[in-house]
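Fig. S4 source data, part A: sequence.
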Amino acid sequence: MKETHDYTRRLYNKIAEWYHDLRTKDSGWFYNEMLEMPTTLKLLGNVKDKKILDLGCGTGIYAKVLTNKGAIIRCIDISEEMIKIAKKGNPKIEFKIGNMDNLPYKDKEFDVVLAALSLEYSKDWDPIFKEVKRVLKDNGLFVFSGSNPVIDVAKKVVYRGRKFRIVKDYFKEGFRETKWTTEHGAYIKIRFYHKTYGTIVKTILRNGFEIIDYEDAFPIDIARKKFPKDYKLWSNMPFFCTWKIMKR
């Protein structure tokens, strides 16, 4: 897992400012602000007075939203540059640098653990789930989001001048690579690990959690005008999904 950690840390250290600007300018980025975040916040529910740990907190965007909703937030991320930006924008919130599989927190410290689009950077989820269970109170909740496992392996193809998406190698788990495009047309390589639904469910159950809720992300209405092409595409296919599970 160390190799994955090192790559992810270097990547987000490099793109931290670009990423934060993308997420916070105007109405934000479609994929997070219009798609993943509304779904995850819905499953989090009422967070007032809840003590929440944000795993892979990035530049503190969730931390700010949840604090404004009355939650008590603690945050950790592997990227030093992400944490610098997060601290600057949220000076009253505690941020730490570290890995999700070795958390510097006490047993049964949190009501909720949140991992938004961060688990998929790790090949082995068992050490992370073990740590999450340790720091959660009894009957505590773990809410995590990620790309939909089917979309992970959807490939674009062109046949007789028409574009299609096909599912390929769904059952072949492991390393994948995708690309993000910057505003200047440059490509950023993103490495992640694909897992099937079956593997995710078995990981949840094996580590002593109960599935409480699940939802595929659907874009919010405002995206229809602000990001019409993205809205049209991802209101017909599930790009992200969010899981809500409880410590047994």
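Fig. S4 source data, part B ends here. The CA atoms of residues 137 and 240 lie 27 Å apart.
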